[in-house]
Specification:
Elements: H1 2-8, H2 12-35, H3 37-41, H4 43-78, H5 82-93
């Protein structure tokens, strides 16, 4: 249910709210697991933890790639000849 809300969220505030709710739910699950050693040792639960760690790593990598791309774009637009072409492009769109 929470994952569906996150995927179907249209605006950034909706995505942030859904992501926060999902993160809260996952924290609750892991807090419950701490009190149940049998669940904590369960193979399916261990697989879930590994998959979540993998997803978090992919998100962090994607976020870093995005930030690097934006930095590169901003640098190219602010220096010659990129600033010249960016100026031409923005003038035609406005």
């Amino acid at each position: 249910m929470l994952v569906k809300a996150l995927v179907s969220a249209g605006t950034l505030p909706e995505r942030m709210k859904a992501g926060s709710q999902l993160q809260s739910a996952l924290r609750s699950i892991f807090a419950i697991a701490e009190n149940y050693p049998q669940l904590k040792a369960n193979e399916n639960f261990l697989q879930l933890q590994q998959e979540l760690a993998s997803i978090e790593d992919k998100i962090a990598f994607s976020r870093q790639y995005y930030n690097d791309s934006i930095l590169s774009f901003n640098n190219s637009v602010s220096t010659f000849p990129g600033s010249f072409f960016a100026g031409l492009l923005w003038q035609t769109k406005t």
